[in-house]
Design a protein that fits this description.
Number of helices: 12
Order of helices and strands: EHEHEHEHHEHEEHEEEHEEHEEHHH
Strand content: 15-25%
Distance between the termini: 39 Å
Strand order of the largest sheet: 3-2-1-4-5-6-11
Bound molecules: uridine-diphosphate-N-acetylglucosamine
Oligomer: single chain
Structural class: alpha/beta
Length: 343
Amino acid sequence: MSILVTGGAGFIGSHTCLELLNSNHQIIVLDNFSNSNMESLNRVKNLTSKEFKVYDVNLLDRESVDHVFRENHIEAVVHFAGLKAVGESVEKPNYYYQNNITGTLVLTEMMDKYNVRNLVFSSSATVYGVPEDVPIAEDFPLSATNPYGRTKLMIEEILKDLYVSSNDWSIAFLRYFNPIGAHESGLIGEDPKGIPNNLMPYITQVATGKLPELNVFGNDYSTPDGTGVRDYIHVVDLAKGHIKALEKVLSESGVEAYNLGTGQGYSVLELVAAFEKASGQKIPYKIAPRRPGDIAECYADPSKAERELGWKAEKSLEEMCLDSWRWQEGNPEGYLIKEVEIK
Ligand code: UD1
């Protein structure tokens, strides 16, 4: 029996594949490589000395998805595949709804057809919209502020309906806070295309000299130093949360949401200072206007995941910074194979 990982070549997906293999699960990866690289999976194979099948398939291609289910003995699905850039989703809502929603519908249709009813879904803290208070617990009101966030929220609703239709389903929504860091080997990590939207990859690219300076989006928020506060979580801790959630969905039916965060918030300037200390690199920055749609503070109450999944984030901010830097320094162009390596 295998675990199907959709979007397994991406940042969180590749780290989760590695943890799944390390905990002796067999995996199959499905990815269309629209925002990821096969090289991440080659490195997962090298790091674990384990083999697995990889399908270059788009979830919108019903025939091919059917083929993957027909050809394999799938026990559960960990579903990462989806588009995730907030700004792009505002520009191209149709593209986001088509990819994320229809893609998930094709997936769950095939799961139903082949009697695979165990699912771990990659959701986001974005489903809390503009939270009324922090720390954020799972029973806080849900809303969306952009099409990307709405796809996550809609998919959660669709999956709840599946459970209502048949209590055989066993589904966990994992609501991620801000994943950063990389595997400690420095061989897999985050590889954004173009100029990064997110803070940590932007900082690491300033550190390598690829970008001149960081723009700090606003220093007039009602936070201790005026800059935005987020719950940064090490991607390896996050990946381990998926293993715990998978064990839970394999052992009992139901539909539950879990926050995956540390419970601790850090400001933009605190993250910059921690990164400078860990890497020894200076990060020049300037204060820029607020980014539209940003909120002042967002951090998790992660106690439900600890109580019900037996999972807790363990890695420190220093480790997150050190590992992000090790990855970026060793792979300044991400997964692009350098010419020397090809020769
Ligand atoms: C963003 C998305 C969120 C998504 C998540 C996925 C937005 C508004 N939100 O979260 O929906 O689920 O990524 O990873 O895009 N910052 C700077 N300068 C930068 C970049 C960021 O000052 O160049 C600040 C932001 O204002 C924020 C913090 O750094 O206070 C974190 O930003 P980011 O890494 O983009 O994450 P979120 O906005 O929390």
